[in-house]
Amino acid sequence: MRPWIWVTHDHRQLGKTPNASGFTVLGDKYAIAVKQHAEAEPFTLPTASAEQIPELLAQCDGVLLTGSPSNIHPSHFDQTVVQPELPLDPLRDQLSLPLIRACLEQQVPILGICRGLQEINVALGGSLHQQVHDLPHMLDHREPANLPYEDQYALSHPIRIVPGSPLAHWAEGESAMVNSLHGQGIDRLADALEAMAFAPDGLVEAVRVRGATHFAYAVQWHPEWRSQEQLLYLNIFKAFGQACTARRLQRLKPISKLSWPTAA
């Protein structure tokens, strides 16, 4: 049986009236990439609480932290909100940040994408630039909102990959082109993290957890978008799926029966 991957979701108010209803939202592209390229079954837990994390993690084989239009509330890295009109998702923050720490403690494979990378950095003590594009000498990493969806996710800029890193192995080289759809980005890298790739302006584009003996990686771009068209994107999901499969085999390994000595 395929491994089960817990995919994080967003909380949104959908509708234009004051009484708009709350919805649990998961982008299809994440679930499809998990299904097709990680060869696993995606699922989400709409009502999970932080207190349930240990019990729930024991029953799954990996965690995917998705991207999102929402930002992490800056109070989690000791800042105030710079741009109040940008969306926040405090309910997601309440679950995702302790979930990350639990994954590392229980050695559950974890892959962070865009907001997911930022969540991992914040959960481990790092901080974020709330608006990278307002900083001197930094690129505007946001997608052009007036273009069609396919153009927003088109390859945007190169990344420089650290030689010898897992990312260099997946890219089969020390550079690659990636898409770019984010306003926030890593400022202070958490001590527990190691950068694996950088944008032309020096922004951290990929990380791994130092000393982790299991799959614990995150990227700032969106490899779930048409993964089959980019070798690096596809290899990230394949490696993640293989790690989740290995955990499933270990998690469901049958307990050896006790052998009792026979009477003489």
Strand content: 15-25%
The CATH topology: Rossmann fold
The CATH class, by name, is: Alpha Beta
Q: In angstroms, what separates the terminal alpha carbons?
A: 43 Å
- Walk across the major sheet and give the strand order: 4-1-5-6-13-12-11-8-9
CATH superfamily, called what?
Answer: Class I glutamine amidotransferase (GATase) domain
Number of helices: 7
Helix content: 25-40%
CATH architecture: 3-Layer(aba) Sandwich
Radius of gyration: 19 Å
| Mean pLDDT, all residues | 94
**Apparent shape:** globular
Question: Low-confidence stretches at least 5 residues in length (pLDDT < 50)?
Answer: none
Largest sheet: 9 strands, mixed
Write down how many β-strands occur, each being a DSSP E stretch of 2 or more residues: 13
Provide the number of structural domains. Answer: 1
**What structural class results from the helix and strand content?**
alpha/beta
**H-E order:** EEEHEHEHEHEHEHEEEEEH
Describe this structure in words.
The structure is a single chain. The chain starts with a strand and ends in a 13-residue tail after the last helix. The mean pLDDT is 94. It is built from seven helices and 13 strands. Helix 3 crosses helix 4 (115-123). It has one domain (4-251): Class I glutamine amidotransferase (GATase) domain (Rossmann fold, 3-Layer(aba) Sandwich), CATH 3.40.50.880. The chain is globular. By secondary structure, the chain is α/β, with parallel strands linked by helices. A nine-stranded mixed beta sheet has the order 4-1-5-6-13-12-11-8-9, sandwiched between helices. It has a two-stranded antiparallel sheet with strand order 2-3.
